[in-house]
Design goal:
76% of the residues lie in helices and 0% in strands. By secondary structure, it is mostly helical. The radius of gyration is 18 Å and the shape is elongated.
């Protein structure tokens, strides 16, 4: 990846995370990146192309950070494995501070989701873990994996983006780096899966 492309991706991620795709101006991106505006068109074709590249890059980074945890949970007992998988996802979000805001902006917008081509859908290790948990009665039999996954991921995205920090400020409850706060959130999500 060229240096100007990488710098633009990083600067654009910050601007899109703050302002969303419609509220972000090209001038703000190039000012943050310290490059000429024409580099956006050279590398990405348009602001929309840059936005799509940012979202694909963020999803790829999250997946790469989360992958070792998902590999590990494949052979674990369902409840402990799911706890570790969810903790790994939340840790991956916290390691990429702009990702949660970007994903929430994307979900609220009307542009097509920027899913990387190499993506193969929902994480198979989590699906397998959940199905094994349903078979053994650990997870609720009536809730399909897709619903459990959507609720869990949405909750962890929201808590990463604003929940833990806001609760910490308003209610003296842990903090973004407090592992016990993260574990309390994950325990609530797991409680929903077990029905």
């Amino acid at each position: 990846m060229s240096e100007s492309r990488a710098v633009l991706l990083e600067a654009a991620a910050g601007e899109f995370a703050k302002n969303g795709p419609k509220g972000t101006r090209i001038q703000d991106i190039v000012a943050a990146a310290g490059v000429n505006e024409r580099m956006i068109y050279h590398h990405f074709g348009s602001k929309d192309g840059l936005y799509r590249a940012v979202m694909e890059d963020q999803r790829t980074r999250l997946a790469q950070t989360w992958a070792p945890v998902l590999d590990k949970v494949a052979t674990m007992e369902p409840r402990d494995g799911m706890r570790l998988a969810l903790r790994g996802f939340m840790d991956a979000l916290q390691a990429a501070p702009q990702a949660a805001a970007l994903l929430i902006h994307e979900a609220l917008g009307d542009t097509p989701l920027a899913i990387p081509e190499q993506s193969d859908g929902l994480p198979q290790p989590m699906r397998d873990l959940y199905l094994r948990g349903q078979e053994t009665g650990v997870f609720a039999a009536a809730a399909p994996f897709e619903v459990a996954y959507a609720v869990a991921v949405s909750t962890l995205l929201a808590m990463t983006a604003f929940g833990v920090r806001r609760f910490a400020e308003l209610h003296n409850w842990g903090g973004p780096d407090d592992g016990s706060s993260r574990d309390q959130v994950i325990a609530q999500v797991l409680g929903g899966m077990t029905g």
